[in-house]
Amino acid sequence: MRRRRSSGDHPPLTSSTAAAALFLSLFLPTAGAFTVTVSDSGAPSALVDAPQTGFSMKRDGGRTDPKEQKAVYEIMKATGNEWATTIPDVCKERWHGIECMPDKDQTYHVVSLSFGALSDDTAFPTCDPDRSFLSPALAALPHIRALFFYRCFAGNPQPLPPFLGRLAPTLQSLVLRDNAHVGPIPPELGNLTRLRVLDLHANRLDSAIPASLASGLSSLRSLDLSANRLSGPLPDLPTDSLNVLDLSNNLLAGPIPPSIGSARSLIKMDLSRNRLTGPIPDTLSGITSLALLDLSYNRLSGPLPDTLTTGPVSLRTLILKSNPMAGTQIPPQGFSRLKNLTVLVLSDAGLTGSIPDSLGRLPALRVLHLDRNRLNGTIPGSLRRLRDLKELRLNDNRLVGPIPFDREMVWRMGRKLRLANNSALCCRPDDEGGRDRDADPEETASFLLGIGYCDPEGVPGSGTATATEHFLSSDGPSPSEESTSSLPVSGGRRIGRRVLVWNWDDP
Ligand SMILES: *[C@@H]1O[C@H](CO)[C@@H](O)[C@H](O)[C@H]1NC(C)=O
Ligand SMILES: *[C@@H]1O[C@H](CO)[C@@H](O)[C@H](O)[C@H]1NC(C)=O
Ligand SMILES: *[C@@H]1O[C@H](CO)[C@@H](O)[C@H](O)[C@H]1NC(C)=O
Ligand SMILES: *[C@@H]1O[C@H](CO)[C@@H](O)[C@H](O)[C@H]1NC(C)=O
Question: Where is the composition biased (Low complexity) (predicted)?
Answer without folding.
Answer: 473-491
